[in-house]
Structures are given as C-alpha cells and as structure tokens.
C-alpha cells in the first residue's frame, strides 16, 4: 500500500485477482420538490475489468454509470459516464454525456446571497466531455481533455433576482474547452482509498471559434489519505476552480456545493469567478463478519462510518478573504456492495452555515462511490 505502514493482510477488504468480479448495482430514484413535482428514475453503476483476458493484480476496476429521471412536471435528466483503466493502469479514459431539462434556483452572484431572493430558472443543457491520460512514469500521468457545454435558460415568473440581474448570457450560450492535464496518483485504491496521494491539475481554453466567448478554465483537485489503523483512515481533500477572461457567462462560473465537497450547500447557492474549498473526512470500517442468507440474498455485509468537516468560499479576482470562508460538516454511512473493487453506496448528511433570518443550510445525499 502506497505510503502505508500497514500490511495488506491487515485490511478486511480483499485485494487480489481471485476476488475480482464484475458487479452491477442499481438504485431507484424517488423524490419530491415544489419546483419539480414528483421525480422518478434509476441510477446504476456497472464495474468491470478491462484486462480480463490477461489480468494483472495492479489493474483498477473500470466503471459505467447511468442516471435517468423524469418528473410529473415533464422534466427529464439523463447522465451516462464511463471510466476505463487499461492493463496495469497505463491508460485512463473518462467520458461523460449529460442532457437535462431541469429547473434550478438562482440566488445571485457572490458569497452573500439571500434565500428569499432566489429565482426559479428553467435550464436545458447538453454536455459532453472526454479525458485521456497516459502514464509517463510510475505515478505520473499526462493527458488531454475536451469539454463541450450548451445551455438555454427560461424564466416563467418574474420573481427574485434573476429577471433584473446583470448577467452575461442570461438566455444561454455554448463553450468548448480544450485542455491539458497532469496527474500524480499513488493511491492504493481509487474507490475507497486508505493510503496515498492524488493530485490532478487541468488548464483548458475555450477558443472564440468554438465558443460564445473565449475564456480560460483552471481546475485543481488534491487528496491525501493517512492510514490510522487497519480499519480507520483520515482523508484530506482540497479543490480549486477558476474561470478567467474578459467576458464570462454566469452559468460557467464555479459553484459551491455538491455531493463531493462542501456537502450541505445547494449547488450554486454561491457562485463567482473563483472557488476554493478543503475538507477532512474520517472513515472507520465496520466488518461484522455476519453471513446473511435469505431467499436470493447471500452476503457478508461490510460498512464504514464517516464524519467530515470543511470550509470553502467563492470570490472575484483579488477578492479572497478569510471572512468569506463558510463551514460544512456532517456524518455518513457506506455500504460495500463490491468488496473486491471497494465500491460503496454512500449516504451523507451535511450541514452548512446559518445566515441571519434563514434556517441552517443542509443537504442529504445518496451516491455510488466515495466523495474523494
């Protein structure tokens, strides 16, 4: 295990070729909100190994995932992702296609937006991305990326800040980002990691002949995992995102909050030209060693408990201030449905800040795979 003083046999999770297997895990999606009505759908993740004919114990599992939902208000969302690792992890390829016709709440720009000023905005989005990274040394990858996104926005009610807000491209637009990527990765597992470091930096440019406006996009992700014992791990994670240029569409601005970092904040509650966030997460493995047999169920369940805390903020260029940092913290539960690949069903509840006159911000998340 990279960076770990623990022996592989100390871990309750398997890590060998005989333990490898393909797996499929579907979960239903059911929800309700005033702006969407009832929402129904399915999410699923399929895990497989690309080197099945000539397997290597080093090769990471590849995945294909899908999310598809519709609502009683005639809204639709479709998202499909592929992540492929070739033999011995020499090549890493990620693709994503997303279409949605879904509304979202726009609260305004900056880090001091108010809940009562929100506007409900309709959004049709097409998004396609491709990332390819080649191993150039034992732990370093270099690659290229392309991302195309097309948006259209509508407002049915003249309420909140959106109708009168001075925003670039309020009706929509498109952008095509062409980028280069550098990755350092010596994690012992890309799913439920217990030791190692991951750093990914990407710089991409949207030229004017492929986009509504020319602009630059910079993104940095970094994680480090510290094994405390055979069953407990401390994970540290940082994220940075910046959009630069003379003319910047509001919908491409970095947004705070999602199911991976700054859990507890509505995605886009705060948005601006720059976004920085950091978090720590403690994970404790629970292996009850119980064999459950009932009808078609035959399993030995393994779980993990998690607690996390972090901080982050959005800001304009030269506008960073520690006073703008916002807190987040929460608890979570993980169920290992594929022990060999260490893939989890993750349930988290996060809390954020409490602004004057508002309830404390919070969020509930059910996801396939870890936050980082």
The number of distinct helices, counting runs of at least 4 residues, comes to 0
Order of helices and strands: EEEEEEEEEEEEEEEEEE
Q: Considering DSSP H and I runs of 4 or more, what fraction of the residues is helical? A: under 10%
CATH topology term: Porin
What is the mean predicted local confidence, pLDDT? 92
Tell the overall outline.
globular
Instruction: Count up the domains.
Output: 1
Helix and strand composition category:
mainly beta
| Percent strand | over 45%
Radius of gyration based on Cα positions: 21 Å
Count of DSSP strands: 18
- Assembly context of the chains: single chain
A few lines on this structure:
The chain has 372 residues and is an all-beta fold. Helices cover 0% and strands 55% of the residues.
